[in-house]
Amino acid sequence: xxxxxxxxxxxxxxxxxxxxxxxxxxxxxxxxxxxxxxxxxxxxxxxxxxxxxxxxxxxxxxxxxxxxxxxxxxxxxxxxxxxxxxxxxxxxxxxxxxxx
Length: 100
Hints:
Elements: H1 5-23, E1 25-27, E2 36-43, E3 46-54, E4 60-62, H2 64-77, E5 82-85, E6 89-96
Antiparallel strand pairs: 1-4, 2-3, 3-6, 5-6
Helix pairs in contact: 1-2
């Protein structure tokens, strides 16, 4: 699904909610039960799936601000969402038609 400007704006709003309500907090290392978190939110233009994976060793806290910043790069970086890895995190934003 192609992200339109309206969907991009809506995705940015739900990304903030996703980070605040579901994706922020403490993560374990990749491959553990708490090394990955996912959230799905409905927008007026379709649904938005977000996945964050902790890709380094040990536990680490993901702040709401760091979470939102990483997801914004995926929302605005490509018209079809995206996935990128940085030092500690892999961020994925995946827009789809329909509802969660």
